[in-house]
Amino acid sequence: MTELSLSNSELQQFRAMIHEIAGIAMSEAKRQLIAGRLSKRLRHFGLGSYGDYYQLLMKDKGEMQMAIDLLTTNETYFFREPKHFEFLREKLVTELRGSGPLRIWSAACSSGEEPYTLALLLASTLQGRPWEILASDISTRILDKARAGLYPLDAAQGIPGDLRQRFCLQGTGRNEGLFTLDASLRQRVQFRQINLNSTLPDVGMFDVIFLRNVMIYFDADTKRQVVQRLRARLRPGGYFLVSHSESLHGITDELESVRPSVYRRPHA
């Protein structure tokens, strides 16, 4: 089958769609990514152009979700940006030692490595205090993968050896070459589909919110709105972490900078 090209007008349609729904600003430089990720769906339906596929999306909510899934999925791995987890470990044994349940939100969890890293950290550091993790993403397909919690064995190399021995289980049979985390950890992570670009559901309040490696895809106005929504879910004194390549400078003045990429909601 001849490879179809994505015309300028078709590119603009998909850029506008993903911005309106997910708040993601895709530049013209993303033409190949958009075309590549959606091409298999054109083949699946036997369509002759990307414009035909766009028209299908406008009529089929299920396929719209599929397209959103394909365009928003990002790579991640265990203990990515380790300084954040070192910071959190330090706070868990000092000011976050309270008695009520500790709640952390991984607000763009992708395939689950970030929330499961947090689960490993909490299980090994918090002694006696109950804890729970909310992990959310806009992609239903990637959330299914995260819930399954199965990863290639080489992905475990990023996990410290003592935690790997205590909490990681090697797959057998049809799961040969894979590993998962102990069920006692996995069941403490709740996965939910949440679109950060719209009104948030009532998920309660959190001590720590991770919003890493997602704001780079938002324009300035969307960043302000997303951060404002999430800040309202952060307890006074709670921590808000973004990627090392991101900053909240010029985005909000309601969170104080603690160190690069780490912010705190002041006590009232």
From TrEMBL:
<protein>
    <recommendedName>
        <fullName>Chemotaxis protein methyltransferase</fullName>
        <ecNumber>2.1.1.80</ecNumber>
    </recommendedName>
</protein>
<dbReference type="Pfam" id="PF03705">
    <property type="entry name" value="CheR_N"/>
</dbReference>
<feature type="binding site">
    <location>
        <position position="76"/>
    </location>
    <ligand>
        <name>S-adenosyl-L-methionine</name>
    </ligand>
</feature>
<feature type="domain" description="CheR-type methyltransferase">
    <location>
        <begin position="1"/>
        <end position="268"/>
    </location>
</feature>
<dbReference type="InterPro" id="IPR000780">
    <property type="entry name" value="CheR_MeTrfase"/>
</dbReference>
<feature type="binding site">
    <location>
        <begin position="212"/>
        <end position="213"/>
    </location>
    <ligand>
        <name>S-adenosyl-L-methionine</name>
    </ligand>
</feature>
<feature type="binding site">
    <location>
        <position position="114"/>
    </location>
    <ligand>
        <name>S-adenosyl-L-methionine</name>
    </ligand>
</feature>
<dbReference type="GO" id="GO:0008983">
    <property type="term" value="F:protein-glutamate O-methyltransferase activity"/>
</dbReference>
<dbReference type="InterPro" id="IPR026024">
    <property type="entry name" value="Chemotaxis_MeTrfase_CheR"/>
</dbReference>
<keyword id="KW-0808">Transferase</keyword>
<dbReference type="Pfam" id="PF01739">
    <property type="entry name" value="CheR"/>
</dbReference>
<feature type="binding site">
    <location>
        <position position="137"/>
    </location>
    <ligand>
        <name>S-adenosyl-L-methionine</name>
    </ligand>
</feature>
<keyword id="KW-0949">S-adenosyl-L-methionine</keyword>
<dbReference type="InterPro" id="IPR022642">
    <property type="entry name" value="CheR_C"/>
</dbReference>
<dbReference type="InterPro" id="IPR036804">
    <property type="entry name" value="CheR_N_sf"/>
</dbReference>
<feature type="binding site">
    <location>
        <begin position="195"/>
        <end position="196"/>
    </location>
    <ligand>
        <name>S-adenosyl-L-methionine</name>
    </ligand>
</feature>
<keyword id="KW-0489">Methyltransferase</keyword>
<dbReference type="InterPro" id="IPR050903">
    <property type="entry name" value="Bact_Chemotaxis_MeTrfase"/>
</dbReference>
<comment type="function">
    <text>Methylation of the membrane-bound methyl-accepting chemotaxis proteins (MCP) to form gamma-glutamyl methyl ester residues in MCP.</text>
</comment>
<feature type="binding site">
    <location>
        <position position="74"/>
    </location>
    <ligand>
        <name>S-adenosyl-L-methionine</name>
    </ligand>
</feature>
<dbReference type="GO" id="GO:0032259">
    <property type="term" value="P:methylation"/>
</dbReference>
<feature type="binding site">
    <location>
        <position position="80"/>
    </location>
    <ligand>
        <name>S-adenosyl-L-methionine</name>
    </ligand>
</feature>
<dbReference type="InterPro" id="IPR029063">
    <property type="entry name" value="SAM-dependent_MTases_sf"/>
</dbReference>
<dbReference type="InterPro" id="IPR022641">
    <property type="entry name" value="CheR_N"/>
</dbReference>
